[in-house]
Design brief:
The complex is a heterodimer of chains A (about 375) and B (about 280). Chain A has about 375 residues and is of the alpha+beta class. Helices cover about 25% and strands about 35% of the residues of chain A. Chain A folds into 2 domains: about 230 residues, P-loop containing nucleotide triphosphate hydrolases (Rossmann fold); about 130 residues, Nucleic acid-binding proteins (OB fold (Dihydrolipoamide Acetyltransferase, E2P)). The longest helix of chain A has 18 residues. Chain B is mainly alpha-helical and about 280 residues long. Chain B contains 12 helices and 2 strands. The longest helix of chain B has about 35 residues. Chain B is globular and about 70 Å long. Classes of the chains: A alpha+beta (about 375), B mainly alpha (about 280). Chains A and B meet through strand 6 and helix 4 of A and helix 7 and helix 8 of B.
């Protein structure tokens, strides 16, 4: 249990900068999720914290102690690797017990046995204890790797995509397990994933990374509702946020956003209008979340309406995803399952413009956040 | 492929294998037969003859025999022991030096790494005769002539290259993350090496040390030129059976049969370590 501070961490591999000036403070007991696409530098960051890679510059503090020069063995950190990194020559039981048998850790055989069984039952791998790693399925190996990280009580827990290779049902269950574990373990945790659902569900705070650079740190709500730029906005949410490049025009004293081909015309609420005027830009990238669009089956009272054609309709379990073509832009809309759509039929979409996001066309920063 | 065709193909394959089998093992069979022949039948090509164990008796128990140039006492057991000592030591030294070298070549980046690796391999390229004269001069000057240490040292030219190259390959096959995991689990680097890396490269160790032993055991030129009677190995001692007035091929054959026994035993015992795919499944992808 310790506070973790990263100060301007930089790590390059040859020509590639994996981590670029990353500064994050993780409070004692906090569960932080590093979110980003492949190549964002998430795994490298974990390895720097663990001490198995050394930063080119920057400082790492664990519990107020500078640990740059401290070897991984002494940092009291546990890590679950994305590639599992199980010991191939040991059984599952021995893999789980391995950290507990390290020099300096004076645990009795009985204690080790009890702890291994406890973790094995928690992760539902207790029937596999006598198997070797090459006799396990991918999901089972992942759970053994996770178990090996959990079996100690480290100061900091580092988890690198620990459930990414499990099937959807098991992932869902493991997310719930993690939430329960969170409250019982209270270990400072850094959890790496590319799946925004895990970030939203598990994180106390989300750290978003793009090519090694920090984009935004905030609570899940904050990062979702107030993304700091286009990258963060598209990172979270499925289907992805709809982005349309628009000109800022005026009509009858009302500010409007008009798409390049003129097909989409949106009335701009006051709150947004003020910010756009402040930003002094003639173009914006408009962001509309799919659940802020509704398909109309009757004439609307007021507000912005988009005329579109049905392009693709997918029914995905609990919701439907409709992709509608509005001029040259494709918009994704979340619908209920009961809805029926035929391809190439015209529809009308109502936009909740008060929830629109506006990004600067060049810097891609969220204009509304200044 | 229809069944008849397949059977014919299999049969043809078996035939080729049989021919090769005979080709490869015939010299050994011949040597064994030769070792059982009496002096009178030594130069014949009979497969059926009156066998005797005299040759074995003579070379092991060391019965004196008289020839035109004097009385000889074959000292075969001593030479055999020399071979055992020298070959074992040569392999031990090669392991001690070569395994860490292989690990360094596999894991670390440093200047001229590939040049160095190739240099190690190049020790095997040159025929021994090209270096034997300068080496013997140096050895005499350094006082290494006719010493166990000297022979073991020069044998590194034979044992190290293969060991380093094979072990390097095995180390490279292990994902670095397994080592990293062991380090974060709290193990110091030497325990990571001992408890995690070495068990995983066991097949490589078995194969390369066996080959290193065989190469060292079989060596003739270095042992002949750089070793005298104190360290004479079993390969060189085979020469002594070509006495000045008669070549005792049958005794030489007996010596060769006995000399090959350690190698055969070693190969058989190491077989269970030569299992492939020990690391499969531990690391994704």
């Amino acid at each position: 249990m310790a506070k973790l501070v990263l100060d301007s961490l930089t790590k390059t591999f040859g020509k590639v900068t994996a981590v670029d000036g990353l500064s994050v403070e993780v409070e004692d007991g906090e569960f932080v999720v590093l979110l980003g696409p492949s190549g964002a530098g998430k795994t490298t960051t974990l390895k720097l914290i663990a001490g198995v890679e050394h930063p080119d510059s920057g400082l790492i503090y664990i519990g107020d102690k500078l640990v740059n020069a401290v070897e991984p063995q002494k940092r009291n950190i546990a890590m679950a690797y994305e590639t599992y990194a199980l010991y191939p020559h040991l059984t599952v039981r021995d893999n789980l017990a391995f950290p507990l048998r390290a020099p300096g850790r004076n645990l009795s055989k009985a204690q080790i046995e009890a702890r291994v069984n406890e973790i094995a039952h928690l992760l539902n791998i207790h029937m596999l204890l006598d198997r070797q790693p090459d006799q396990l399925s991918g999901g089972q190996r992942q759970r053994v790797s996770l178990g090996r990280a959990l079996v100690r009580n480290p100061d900091i827990l580092l988890l690198d995509e620990p459930i990414s290779h499990l099937d959807a049902k098991l992932r869902h269950r493991m997310r719930a397990e993690f939430k329960a574990l969170k409250s019982s373990l209270k270990t400072t945790t850094v959890y790496v994933t590319h799946d925004y659902l895990e970030a939203l569900s598990l994180a106390d705070r989300v750290v978003t990374l793009d090519h090694g650079k920090l984009q935004q740190i905030g609570s899940p709500d904050d990062v979702f509702s107030n993304p700091v730029n286009v990258f963060v906005a598209t990172l979270l949410g499925h289907p992805k946020i709809n982005l349309v490049k628009c000109r800022v025009t005026s009509q009858d004293g009302q500010m409007r956003f008009v798409s390049a081909d003129g097909h989409i015309q949106l009335n701009v609420p006051d709150r947004i209008r003020q910010k756009v005027e402040q930003a002094n830009t003639s173009e914006v990238i408009v962001g509309i979340r799919p659940f802020h669009l509704t398909v109309l089956d009757h004439q609307p009272e007021h507000g912005s309406v988009i005329n579109a054609m049905v392009y693709v309709y997918e029914r995905l379990g609990s919701t439907g995803v409709l992709t509608a073509a509005a001029g040259t832009s494709n918009l994704d809309v979340l619908t209920s399952l009961e809805a029926q759509f035929d391809i190439d039929t015209p529809i009308r979409l109502a936009v909740q413009t008060e929830h629109m996001l506006a990004f600067h066309p060049v810097t891609e920063k969220n204009i509304l956040l200044d | 492929m229809n069944p008849v065709r397949r059977r014919l193909t299999n049969l043809a394959g078996d035939l080729v294998l049989l021919i090769y089998f005979i080709f490869a093992l015939f010299p050994i069979l011949w040597m064994f037969l030769m070792s059982l022949k009496r002096n009178e039948e030594m130069f014949t090509t009979h497969f059926i003859f009156n066998p005797t164990l005299d040759n074995y008796r003579i070379i092991t128990i060391g019965e004196q025999y008289v020839s035109g140039t004097g009385t000889f006492r074959p000292d075969f057991p001593r030479f055999f022991l020399n071979s055992v000592i020298i070959s074992s030591l040569a392999v031990a030294v090669a392991l001690l030096v070569g395994v860490p070298a292989a690990y360094a070549l596999a894991r670390f980046k440093f200047k001229a790494k590939e040049n160095l690796a190739f240099t190690f391999l190049s020790f095997r390229f040159a025929p021994e005769f090209t270096v034997i004269i300068p080496l013997s001069i140096i050895y005499r000057q350094l006082g290494l002539y006719n010493t166990y240490g000297g022979i073991v040292w020069v044998y590194q030219l034979i044992t190290l290259p293969l060991l380093i190259w094979v072990m390097r390959g095995y180390f490279e096959e292990i994902s670095p993350e397994i080592e990293q995991a062991a380090m974060t689990d709290g193990y110091p680097w030497w325990q990571v090496f001992w408890k995690v890396m070495l068990p995983l490269v066991k097949p490589g160790l078995a194969a390369s040390s066996l080959l290193a032993f065989v190469f060292a055991w079989n060596n003739f030129v270095f042992a002949l030129v750089l070793g005298g009677s104190d360290v004479q190995t079993v390969t060189v001692s085979a020469l002594s059976f070509l006495a000045s007035e008669q070549a005792y091929y049958n005794r030489m054959a007996a010596a060769c049969v006995i000399a090959s026994i350690p190698e055969i035993l070693l190969a058989l015992s190491i077989q269970r370590y030569l299992i492939r795919g020990l690391s499969f499944g531990a690391v994704k992808g």
